[in-house]
Each structure stands twice: as C-alpha cells, then as structure tokens.
Amino acid sequence: MSSSISSSTQDSLDDSPQPNLPLRKIPGTYGLPFFGAIKDRLQFFYYQGRNEFFNTRMSKYNSTIFRINMPPGPFIANNPKVIVLLDAVSFPVVFDLTKVEKKNVLATYSPYFSFFGGYHPCAYQDPSEPTHNKIKQIIFSLISSRHDKFISIFQNSLNELFNNIESQIAATTSADFSTLSNSMAFEFLFRSLYNTDPKDTKLGTEGQSIVTRWLSLQLAPLVTLGLPVIPDFIEDMLLRTIKFPFFPAKSGYKKLYDVIYEASAKTLDEAEQLGLKRDEACHNLIFMSFFNAYGAMTAWYPILIKWIGLGGEKLHKQLSDEIRAVVLSEGGEVTMSGLEKMTLTKSAVYEAFRIEPPVRHQYATAKKDLVVQNHESSFEIKKGELILGYQPFATNDPKIFENPETFKADRFVGEKGEKLLKYVYWSNGRETENATVDNKQCPGKDMSMLLSRLMVVELFLRYDTFGIEVGTSYLGPSVTVKSMTAKATKII
Ligand code: HEM
User: Fold this and answer.
1) Which of 48, 61, 376, 465 could form a disulfide with 52 if both were Cys (CB 3.0 to 4.6 A apart)?
2) What's the pTM?
3) Residue 302 carries which DSSP code?
4) Distance, CA 477 to ligand 1 centroid (Å)?
C-alpha cells in the first residue's frame, strides 16, 4: 500500500485548505463504455487485487486522486465511474455534507429494497431526507437505553468465546477465530440490544444462517469467492450480471422481523411518537443490527485479533501489565473509568482501526462543483460526480503516519500521538468527532470502541499470550488460533 509520493510532513500536521496548490486536471480514464468498466472490475477482483489495483494507478498518474470504474458495473450499477481519493487530506470531503450528498451511496449499486421491507434504511439516506434523522434518533435511544448492560453481557459472551476457542484447540489443535467470533457477535447483539437469546425465540438455532443468507444476497456483487474450481470470468458473471432477488431470504427474514418486532415494543412506540411507521422502524432496527453492526463486527474482530496477535509476546506482556494493574486499582472490576486509563490498550485498538479499517469504501456524490486538495495539488470535481474515499490508503498515508504499514501499538499515546486521531476514519467520520442525527457518522462508534477495548482487556486478564496464523478470505483476514497461554500468576 505504500505510496511512491513521499516526504513526511508529520511534524506540521495541517490539513486546512492551502491557497497555493496548483490546479491539476484529475488524471485517469474510464475507457470505452461497458468494456472499460469490465476491464477495471476484472483487474480489481482477479488480475491485480484491490491494493495492487489502486497502487499501480497511483504510481502511473503520480497522484492520490484519479478516475476509475468501480465494481460491480454493468449491468447492475448505473454508474461505475468514480473519482477515487487515496490520501488523508482529501478523504474527509466524503464526510462534508455541505459539499456531498449521501443518498443511495453505500456502494455504486443498491440491492432491491425488498430486502428492507421496501424502505430505504438510514444508512442509504442523506440526512436531508425526511426519515434519516428520526431513525437515527431511535437508534441512539436504543443504544443509550442498553448502554449500562454492554460490559457485563460482552464479558459473558467473551467468556463463551474463549471457552469455545480452547475446546476447539484441545480437539483439533487449532481454532477458527472468525467462525466462533461471528456466532459470539450475533448472540451478543441479540442479548444486548433486545434482551433475549436468539435460541430462545422462534429463530432457534437458525438465526445466524438466516442473517448470513440475507447479507450474502445483498453483498455478493461486491465480493470474490476465489474458488479454484470456477474460472474467474465465470464467477464474475455469476456474481455481477443480475441483482440477486430477495425471495431466497424471504421466509427467514419474516421470522427475524417477527422476533425483533416483538422484542422492540418500547423502541417502536418511540418511533411512532416521532412520526415513523412501526414497520419502517422495525426494518431499520434489523438493518442496523444485522447489516451495520453484525456485518461490521464480523469484519472487525478478526482484524483486531490479527494485529494484536501479530504484535507477539512483547506487546502481550505490555498490554497485560497495563490491563492487570488498572483492573487491580479499580478493585478487581473492569469499569468504564478503568478502560479510559489504559492508554496502551486504547492506542492499540485505534492503531488496528487505522492500519486495517474494516469498512473500506466510503462513497458520496458531489452536490455542487467543488475543489479537493491532496498534499500536492487542487482538483475540480463537478456537481453529480461520484467520489470514493478508499480508506485503507487514506489511513496509511505516509505523509501523516510514519511507517504506516507497521503496526505500532503505542502510536496514539501521548500528546503527539493524540494529534493523529483526527486522521482515523473507521467510523465514517474523524475519531475526534461524534456521531449525530444530522451527520453520517456511525452511531455505534462509542459502543464499538468500548467492545473492542473490552475484547483486548478480557483476553489479557485470562491469558499471558496467544499464537495465531493469518490467512486471507474473501471478506478479510482469516485468523486461526494455534495456542492460548493461560495467565501464569493469579494477580486478581
Ligand atoms: C466495528 C464495528 C463498526 C464499524 C467498523 C462501523 C462502521 C460504519 C461505517 C463506515 C458507517 C458508514 C457507512 C457509509 O455510510 O458509508 C457506519 C454507519 C452506521 N453504523 Fe456502524 N460500524 C460499526 C458498528 C456499528 C454498531 C455496533 C452499530 C449499532 C449498534 C452501528 C450502526 C450504524 C448505523 C445505523 C449506521 C448508519 C448511520 C447513518 O447513516 O447516519 N454500527 N458504520
């Protein structure tokens, strides 16, 4: 992911507009209609892969801003043409609602809205649309009403997760972290947001597979399976020629809807008082819980454990020393105030979010002619053009982050480190800013940060170190846990 355009400006961190940067035409071409989009898509998924796809063009155009086609393209996306932003300075324009619109831009294509009861969920809406703010309001309200339960419920969920990992290692010498952590996340969300265990509802043991089918049909055009038995171009056509219909997920979704509807009476009453329809609110709760939250957690926890695991025994010792000392000073309990005192743990979590942000693409449409700047130049974007901030490059910008490809657990410790937090963008906004009903930042930001810290804390309260192997799957890293070394000395 390294940029050929270097020379560090880290000591003078400033991304306010620079009056003297030369105006440059945005480089890059979309190629011939249809063929250009297919060529870019094959290169993106199969012949180059994501990072190489962006890296080769960044070098060729000597620019972090250029034009490309983004998948899926024909025939299911009307407009694959985007202007991509790959540096930390230009990227935040996708958060600036005075300049961009966020209607229907989760990707360059949208699934059929029958997946969501015919409604446009909050994440697909611009805040100027009539229901965005009301839906986000009930989401904030639900999260804050359950907030004081998160620590204890997640501690129980993690306890089950670690027990399952240990049993799998005992039985087969290794444990597939992603599979076990996905089940943990699914059950945790039910318990924490809906005060029920999915297995005790009419979903029985089917809940997670119902959600996986519903998600897979929506996301299939945006992934590659990499199955060796199917030639690439056949897989490409199978995944990206037509939108997948809702009906294979319909009966499972109906069950899920009934369960969430029943468990959410209070939230739905509140939604009605705000002028929302009960069913619209319920479809939105499902989207929030199982697309936004569960979808992101399944991508994120393997990333977090990958980077903490690769940190090795030295980092594990530093983290466990910090965590155990703070917990001891808090009377043996994991508390909110204690978590705030764990400076290395906090920094390590920010660093994992920085080095490998779990949601990579952020799209936006220019709502007027505008100018964006990278470190070297200014570029004009016309009203109506689609912008893509590709986050893994922006948060690995070598002009902002020294040795960006190195996982430096203490990068954000101290005054100098904290100044870098404004360049951490995983929540669809700066780490130094907060989600509100009027912006598009993730309303689960604080909750996700709390749970991530808690995962590291519980890990090192129980173990001295652990060993992993990392591979890749079509959704991100696949993490296999090879060993868990239980805490040697009982301190607390
Ligand atoms: C590590 C976990 C998470 C990550 C990485 C994450 C990331 C994101 C990102 C990048 C967006 C913006 C999507 C876009 O517009 O392009 C977003 C939006 C959203 N997230 Fe999260 N999220 C996480 C957890 C959660 C949780 C736990 C919840 C709720 C309990 C949640 C609820 C939402 C909602 C409702 C939106 C739409 C907000 C709006 O449109 O105004 N997320 N999240």
Assistant:
1) 48
2) 0.96
3) H
4) 20
Q: Does the beta carbon of 121 sit less than 6 angstroms from any atom of ligand 1?
A: no
Cα angle at 142 between 141 and 147, to 5 degrees?
95
> What DSSP character marks residue 19?
T
Q: Please name the fold of domain 102-357+395-486.
A: Cytochrome p450 (1.10.630)
Q: Which pair of structure tokens corresponds to residue 19?
A: 């009056």
Residue 362 CB–ligand 1 contact under 6 Å: yes
For residue 364 and ligand 1, the question of a CB distance below 6 A is answered with: no
Residue 324, Ramachandran bin (φ over 0: left; ψ between -120 and 50: alpha; else beta): alpha
Q: Which residue has the tokens 């893994």?
A: 392
Annotated binding site for heme: 442
Residue nearest atom 35 in ligand 1 by C-alpha distance: 288
In testing the pocket of ligand 1, which one of 102, 286, 442 has its CB within 8 Å of the most ligand atoms? 442
Q: Is the dihedral of CA 457, 460, 461, 463 positive or negative?
A: positive
Nearest residue (CA) to ligand 1, atom 37: 123
Give me the amino acid identity at 47: Y
Measured from the CB, is residue 264 less than 6 Å from ligand 1? no
Cα 135 to middle of ligand 1, angstroms: 13
Domain layout of the chain by residue ranges:
1-101+359-394, 102-357+395-486
Q: How far apart are CA 340 and CA 453, in angstroms?
A: 10
pLDDT per residue as tens, the chain (492 positions):
444 333 444 545 667 778 789 999 999 999 999 999 999 999 999 999 999 999 999 999 999 999 999 999 998 998 999 999 999 999 999 999 999 999 999 999 999 999 999 999 999 999 999 999 999 999 999 999 999 999 999 999 999 999 999 999 999 999 999 999 999 999 999 999 999 999 999 999 999 999 999 999 999 999 988 777 888 889 999 999 999 999 999 999 999 999 999 999 999 999 999 999 999 999 999 999 999 999 999 999 999 999 999 999 999 999 999 999 999 999 999 999 999 999 999 999 999 999 999 999 999 999 999 999 999 999 999 999 999 999 999 999 999 999 999 999 999 999 999 999 999 999 999 999 999 999 999 999 999 999 999 999 999 999 999 999 999 876 778 999 999 999 986 544
Q: For a ligand 1 pocket test, name from 101, 104, 141, 292 the mutation site with the most ligand atoms within 8 angstroms of its C-beta.
A: 292
Residue 26 contacts by C-beta under 8 Å, 6 or more apart in sequence? 65, 66, 67, 83, 379, 380, 381
